[in-house]
Write a structure and sequence with these properties.
The complex is a heterodimer of chains A (302) and B (227).
Chain A: H1 6-19, H2 21-58, E1 60-65, H3 71-82, E2 87-93, H4 95-106, E3 127-132, H5 138-146, E4 151-155, H6 159-200, H7 202-211, H8 215-255, H9 257-262, H10 269-299
Antiparallel strand pairs in A: 1-3, 1-4, 2-3
Helix pairs in contact in A: 1-8, 2-6, 2-8, 2-10, 6-8, 6-10, 8-10
Chain B: E1 2-9, E2 18-25, E3 30-34, H1 41-48, E4 56-61, E5 64-65, H2 74-78, E6 81-85, H3 96-106, H4 111-124, H5 140-152, E7 158-162, H6 170-185, E8 189-194, H7 197-203, E9 206-211, E10 214-219
Parallel strand pairs in B: 3-8, 3-9, 6-7, 7-8
Antiparallel strand pairs in B: 1-2, 1-4, 4-5, 9-10
Helix pairs in contact in B: 3-4, 3-5, 4-5, 5-6
Classes of the chains: A alpha+beta (302), B alpha/beta (227).
Chain lengths: 302, 227
Amino acid sequence: MKLSSFGYHVKQGFKNIGRNKMFSIASIATMTACIFIFGAFFSIIMNVNAIRTDLEQRVGVTVFMNEGVTDDQMTQIGDQIKAIDHVTSVTFTSADEAWSQYQEEYFESNPALAEGFSDNPLANSANFTVLVDKIENQDAVVSQIKAIDGVRQVNQSSGAATTLKSFNRLFTMLSVAIIAVLLVVSVILISNTINVGIEVRKDEIGIMKLIGATDSFVRAPFVVEGLILGLIGSVIPMVILYFGYNALMTKVLTKFGFLSSMSGVLLSVKQVFVYVGPVSLILGLGIGLTGAIITVKKHLQV
Amino acid sequence: MIDLDRVSKQYEKGQPAVDEISLHVDKGEFVFVVGESGAGKSTLIKLLMKELEPTHGIITVNGYVLNTMKHRQIPKYRRQIGVVYQDFRLLPEMTVYENVAFAQHVIEAPAREIRKRVPEALREVGLAEKYKSLPRQLSGGEQQRVAIARAVVNRPKILLADEPTGNLDPRNSLEIMKLLEKINEKGTTVLVVTHNKDLVNRLGKRVITMHRGAIAHDVEEGSYVEA
């Protein structure tokens, strides 16, 4: 196809859409729904992932030492923990610090209660707080810490992050299933629209072929039509999602109470659209192109 | 220019639509193909347009052997042939200008060429002033002239006309035939399938008469003879 014909095909593509208004609107509406749902789910998944990552980074492992461990031994244990793969930080809390933190946390409103303790009741609670890069590496790190001489107990608190991970996996699977069904529906609808276009233009196509049109010339307006439908069908939901993003995310995350309690911070619309925008556009154009190619191949024996 | 060597076309069992015909048409000739309905005239046009494949025989047109031609070569071949039908086959929602320009768009002619060639073709058929009209606003004769303009705008070497006057009154029929003669005088080979006895006899061109798929007569400067 020559470049000089490009404008002609684009014009013909728009004409086709105009000729089959109802079918075109139906295709665009389905695509809009499909890509909107895709974009919304994608945004939710991104936010849940962000919350999980944030949580993972804050979920530590607490390591307690045997009674009578000297300061030098504690330093050695700390160094050994630091040397383990996937450990991102190791923070030491002495028994006195642990007791102060406890008092602050539990006796803040009634300091007199703390005065009842003459000695540090947490004398054996000097500990290391260990952070791990990813939640899935936590178990391996814990077993290595347990093997260190002088370590009495290791407390894990990965429950919340693990729940979030399971939730995200379930949500992703559900999203993929819904999006897959909508994708198929969109391709079928676009294919129908283009098929109607081919029927309407049957005489014109016949004349084109007799005059000497190449196969690609005959096909081009229908491919352009599919791409235009795909483009419109992906831009509309993206605009809606862009402007409704904050409201939508707040509403969805509030629905799942445990998510909002874990992190009140949403990713900004720009952070999400860096990914959602191009992927949706490619998806829309892909659906349009696939619908067009399938139909043209099936119904246009040129 | 056109060579058919023992060409047959059989659609189904029974009498072939075209039966072992051999003929030769020289460059620049004007030929009438006549015969009763079902004689095989339209099948002949379809074979020449490579809309149909022959069952037997070899068809050579303008150096192209149609039997062995690859699918991708067909557009290039058809660009050398203009074709006109009884029912005009104009696109109803396009203006006269757009119908003719359509043929140029299809061969991907540059815009500058289209702007030059379309008015020329319309002048040639005497419809320059009606370029904005839609086909339904024209008479049958005028519509056929638009179809001829569309057929010649790409400057084909051969013009095939399948019953071009079939839907026209005698006056318009004569005008269309004179137009085809004028196009032939400029060097285009013209092959006209027709039933119109008066016109064939009036023009005194070569006449090939078909009967039941075979060539019954082939006469230079002939007349319409019932087979």
